[in-house]
Amino acid sequence: MSESSPVGKIKVGIVGASGYGGVQLVRLLTQHPEVELVYLGGDSSAGQPYTDIYPHLADSVNLTVEAVDLGEIAQRCQAVFLSLPNGLAYTMAPTLLERGCRVLDLSADYRFENLNTYQSWYGGDRTDQTTAVEAVYGLPELFRDRIRNARLVGCPGCYPTASLLGIAPLLKQGLAQPETLIIDAKSGTSGGGRVAKTGMLLAEASNSLGAYGVARHRHTPEIEQICTHLASQEVTVQFTPHLIPMVRGILATIYATLRDPGLVRDDLLTIYSAFYRSSPWVTVLPSGTYPQTKWAWGTNRCYIGLETDARTGRVVVMSAIDNLMKGQASQAVQCFNLMMGLEEGLGLPTTTFYP
Ligand SMILES: NC(=O)C1=CN([C@@H]2O[C@H](COP(=O)(O)OP(=O)(O)OC[C@H]3O[C@@H](n4cnc5c(N)ncnc54)[C@H](OP(=O)(O)O)[C@@H]3O)[C@@H](O)[C@H]2O)C=CC1
Ligand SMILES: CC(=O)N[C@@H](CCC(=O)OP(=O)(O)O)C(=O)O
């Protein structure tokens, strides 16, 4: 591993720099006051100057994408972000850790405590059990202290981030019946990544709305794993994702039956505000205000609003994030800040462009 640069900045690399996660990371890390971006890696883009892929970054970055060489990466970088399709990070992270790098994986490879769960949803042949057990789930609002001490962080999926931040106070404080949880979530098309897919063509996705992965989306076990941890009992959830014709953003609408049907909206808002008192990136909205995904665009924020329904005894929680930011890249930088002993919000955009 290389020493700190002369100016004392942390040398950082990104593998998967040409993708949507990669380009968010480039934007954030080139503006981060404690980071020197020294390495960009990829596969089909290897050999290309980065600004041939993203000309709008011509004034910010002067690097060429390189083929992945783990020894070379470890020599040049103190921390590495892996922004790759599922199933690749686990072939790279053990070597990078062994050679002294901190690793932040944006894929699903290091999100699961139990590798059997990973393999039954994602396939693959995992032999990195020792590495996987040391990984920390990168949701700072729930696991801040563990992330501070981690060498390897498995950053959450976009739907799990929106869902879990909306659900956490309900389960942690025993306010809702866990078995009644239903999550109805909508995502913009950038959630599918930059790789060409027919369903993401303008002609297919625009002016249309539909569910997919019903009762079998791979974010279900990820959400259930953390819900089980929060509730201290086995939790299953009904999770239905939808593709919505917008570029960025996720809105998760969460339904659950309250244990005490006498609880009203303002009681719950008080509890939510207290729960997130030390989490400045979660904004609990005032009574009667429900979040819009547009408010979170380009920021690391999660906006939460809620309502109770005395007729059904349910609470309805609405949670909005930018899938590429709090749902992916900026959350990874938030974790990086914690791992490196920096102020948690360093270099993270706080306010959206609007409208
Ligand atoms: N998009 C989203 O909203 C979210 C995505 N994620 C996760 O983050 C990860 C990245 O997603 P996203 O940015 O959307 O994906 P993209 O499809 O946009 O980008 C994938 C990147 O992986 C690189 N890559 C693919 N195969 C290899 C390989 N064998 N070796 C080196 N590089 C390779 C590609 O490089 P090249 O172009 O050079 O081939 C490309 O840069 C995924 O695991 C995704 O599930 C997590 C949360 C939210
Ligand atoms: C709209 C859309 O296609 N979204 C993606 C979510 C991508 C993501 O965050 O998934 P991982 O990080 O767990 O791979 C999907 O549903 O597969």
Automatic annotation (TrEMBL):
One of its GO terms (biological process) is L-arginine biosynthetic process. GO terms for molecular function: N-acetyl-gamma-glutamyl-phosphate reductase activity; NAD binding; NADP+ binding. The keyword NADP applies. Keywords: Amino-acid biosynthesis, Arginine biosynthesis, Cytoplasm, NADP, Oxidoreductase. It catalyses: N-acetyl-L-glutamate 5-semialdehyde + phosphate + NADP(+) = N-acetyl-L-glutamyl 5-phosphate + NADPH + H(+). SUPFAM superfamilies: Glyceraldehyde-3-phosphate dehydrogenase-like, C-terminal domain (SSF55347), NAD(P)-binding Rossmann-fold domains (SSF51735). GO terms for cellular component: cytoplasm. PANTHER family: N-ACETYL-GAMMA-GLUTAMYL-PHOSPHATE REDUCTASE, CHLOROPLASTIC-RELATED, N-ACETYL-GAMMA-GLUTAMYL-PHOSPHATE REDUCTASE, CHLOROPLASTIC-RELATED-RELATED. CDD domains: AGPR_1_C (cd23934), AGPR_1_N (cd17895). Pathway: Amino-acid biosynthesis; L-arginine biosynthesis; N(2)-acetyl-L-ornithine from L-glutamate: step 3/4. This is N-acetyl-gamma-glutamyl-phosphate reductase. PROSITE patterns: ARGC. Residues 11-150 form the Semialdehyde dehydrogenase NAD-binding domain. The active site is at 158. It is found in: Cytoplasm. Catalyzes the NADPH-dependent reduction of N-acetyl-5-glutamyl phosphate to yield N-acetyl-L-glutamate 5-semialdehyde. Its EC number is 1.2.1.38. Pfam families: Semialdhyde_dh (PF01118), Semialdhyde_dhC_1 (PF22698). The lineage of its organism: Bacteria, Bacillati, Cyanobacteriota, Cyanophyceae, Oscillatoriophycideae. Belongs to the NAGSA dehydrogenase family. Type 1 subfamily. InterPro entries: AGPR (IPR050085), AGPR_AS (IPR023013), AGPR_dimerisation_dom (IPR058924), AGPR_type-1 (IPR000706), NAD(P)-bd_dom_sf (IPR036291), Semialdehyde_DH_NAD-bd (IPR000534). Its main location: cytoplasm.
